[in-house]
Amino acid sequence: MAYDESVDLEQFRAETREWLEENCPPSMRTPMKDDEIVWGGKREKFKNPEAKVWLERMGEKGWTAPEWPAKYGGGGLSREQNRVLQEELRRIKARPALFSFGLWMFGPALLEFGNEEQKLRFIPDIVKGKTRWCQGYSEPGAGSDLADLQTRCEDKGDHYLINGQKVWTSYADKADWIFCLVRTDTSTKHEGISFILFDMESEGVEARPILLISGESPFCETFFTDVKVPKDQLVGEVNGGWQIAKRLLQFERSSISAGGFGGTGGSGILGPEEYAKMHIGTDSEGRLIDGDLRGRITDHKMYAKAFNLTVQRQAEQAKAGQQVGHTASILKYGAAKMNQDRHELLVEALGTEGLGWEGEGFDPAAKKVTRQWLRSKGNSIEGGTSEINLNVISKRVLGLKDHK
Amino acid sequence: MTFLLTEDQEMLRDTAMAFARDELPVTRLRKLRDSGANGVDPDTRQKLAELGFFGVIIPDEPGGEHFGLVGLGQILEAQGRTLAATPVLQTALIAASALQLGGSAEQQAEWLPKIAGGDATFALALDETAHFNPLGVATEAERNGQGYTLNGMKRFVADAHHADMLIVVARTYGEAGDRHGLTLFLVPADAKGVSVQALNSVDSHGAAHITLEDVIVPDSAIIGAVDKGADVLEPVLDRAAMGQAAEMLGSAQAAFDMTLEYLNSRKQFGQLIGSFQALQHRAAKMFTELELTRSCVAAALAAVDEGKDNVAELASLAKAKASELVHLVSNECVQMHGGIGMTDDADPGLYMKRARVQEAMFGSASWHRDRYARLAGY
């Protein structure tokens, strides 16, 4: 059996290699540029036309979601085949064809909790990048205490009626659809939440971008005023949404920690030790002159190495069927710390060169560092604050008791 | 498969854990301390030999080869949990590695079986100042008619107060600080001119200062090549750092488990103190550090067995992370136990004392951070 499998895998590798050779456009084998990332959806502009071709071809094969079932448009690959596919993609340095909350968060949850009709209706367009999804979770009064959300969803017989406000809705102004947590029962907390899907073009939906300290607006305030939603767009049971919400948060935390925050590559930003060498200098033995900064950079680099080894260890253990426990929270906590430390060190090593905002007179990569440094402050807030993650670790992993 | 144990290694781990728990509990260290044995424990040495723990990385011994350094790491981690004083690190890891990496066929034939059988124990006599500095060796080895004459002083040598053999690092060329010119010598601890001053150390494991006064050794005592001892010493020290890190991981895990148990049993203000968020978050951070360090230690040990080329980098990573971890956890263990943690009757203090010795051996966290940066070119 094992022998046959390996023969099949080698054949799969040969076929995959040939297909990629023919179908991956040349510019898709170069490092990703920040403004050429494809998020899909109706409003996708495809700055690089080859990115459109690449997405269409990958989407057609289902290889944007290699392990999802073929009947929903996924690749239908085994874990081993997917490993081969990823190795071959890395080999030619192929860019990801699609960045998508649908792929990372919503799709996995819908496959687990959706009914057959919903899966057939929504999953294929996620795989092909035709629908861009956003996440309606946080509200002005429900951040870390997410289950306190108040957006109302009333049963009006033949439809639901939604009223309320979400906040920190990533890219709500660019998304086609939203997966949203709403309150269907006001007499109870966690057991009164439902998980519902609707079109962002529905009447009564308004998304307003929020300007952040980084000067960018990736998040929105999103308002719902008498939004009518067909009844077949509620996922799972009425009042059963909290289970789905929590599961989806696990997917979100894992995708954040796997990506290590904002690491799209090709940004032209160097490591803190390189900037320190450049702007501070080295002694005759090549060591950074600022011994204190050198020590802190090393501390950070060791933490990053330990973090990456831990991601690898847990992947191997999971693959071998070993219990890895509630590791998502550990990794989310670690990833936030790692990325924030890195950007603090980058700005420090750059000195005044790292304090530019816009216009001439600053290195473009350094200006990007400045913006990313400000953006990184959100890493310990979004997707569950670091404090909430420490609560989760101490209670669910270490078994410490609640305060009475 | 860097991080998964083989079935044999799993069994070895289980055996080592059970042995440490049943035969080498913390109470045994207390007994050794209170009886004045200063970490010397012939009964345990005998049992370790019977279990085959001395031969784990020595090929041609029954069940030897395939345990590897990963296997030996499991034993050291288990012993670290209970602060056991044993010759495993110095003899089964350091001496066996030095002989396999640099020893002649005759040396290997003579000494490896004795190591595996528990018939000879070793101590690496390296440091001459209060801080780890392998290239700083000044002990002189002067050419004489029959071989070499050694003169010098070695400080705080672990296990040297009971070892049968010493591996002495001496200088045959150049001056302190030079990489070239170091040579390793096998010297019987009872050789003429060797005096051993036993030390009572804070961790109750003991150690010794060694004075070498006109100690005459033959050419056949040299491990590796003359002047090129660093080629053997450096990989040996990398492995020693990993072995020490594995032991520290075990100590940190045990101190953490003890702390968690206390948080879940001690009540103040009518509440379990473990329900206070100030303590919960510190416990959760320690747990995160434990998991990260576990990955570093495992990766380092496996890199040796798999013949990877980043062994030095991973050795420094593992030793630095494990030093920081055991420092943090042992301090928090005392603090979270409150007044109890200050008493000699309770174990937290023993973990803190042992931690400081572990941290200092084979390079402190800052020594390894410096080396890590150097290896990365900045």
Automatic annotation (TrEMBL), chain A:
One of its GO terms (cellular component) is plasma membrane. Pfam families: Acyl-CoA_dh_1, Acyl-CoA_dh_M, Acyl-CoA_dh_N. Residues 239-398 form the Acyl-CoA dehydrogenase/oxidase C-terminal domain. Its cofactor is FAD. Keywords: FAD, Flavoprotein, Oxidoreductase. The keyword Flavoprotein applies. This is Acyl-CoA dehydrogenase.
TrEMBL record, chain B:
PANTHER family: ACYL-COA DEHYDROGENASE (PTHR43884), ACYL-COA DEHYDROGENASE FADE28 (PTHR43884:SF20). Its cofactor is FAD. Residues 133-215 form the Acyl-CoA oxidase/dehydrogenase middle domain. It comes from the Bacteria. It comes from Hyphomonas atlantica. Keywords: FAD, Flavoprotein, Oxidoreductase. Transmembrane segments: none annotated. CDD domains: ACAD (cd00567). Residues 228-374 form the Acyl-CoA dehydrogenase/oxidase C-terminal domain. Belongs to the acyl-CoA dehydrogenase family. Residues 6-119 form the Acyl-CoA dehydrogenase/oxidase N-terminal domain. One of its GO terms (molecular function) is acyl-CoA dehydrogenase activity. InterPro entries: Acyl-CoA_Oxase/DH_mid-dom, Acyl-CoA_Oxase/DH_mid-dom_sf, AcylCo_DH-like_C, AcylCo_DH/oxidase_C, AcylCoA_DH/ox_N, AcylCoA_DH/ox_N_sf, AcylCoA_DH/oxidase_NM_dom_sf. This is Acyl-CoA dehydrogenase.
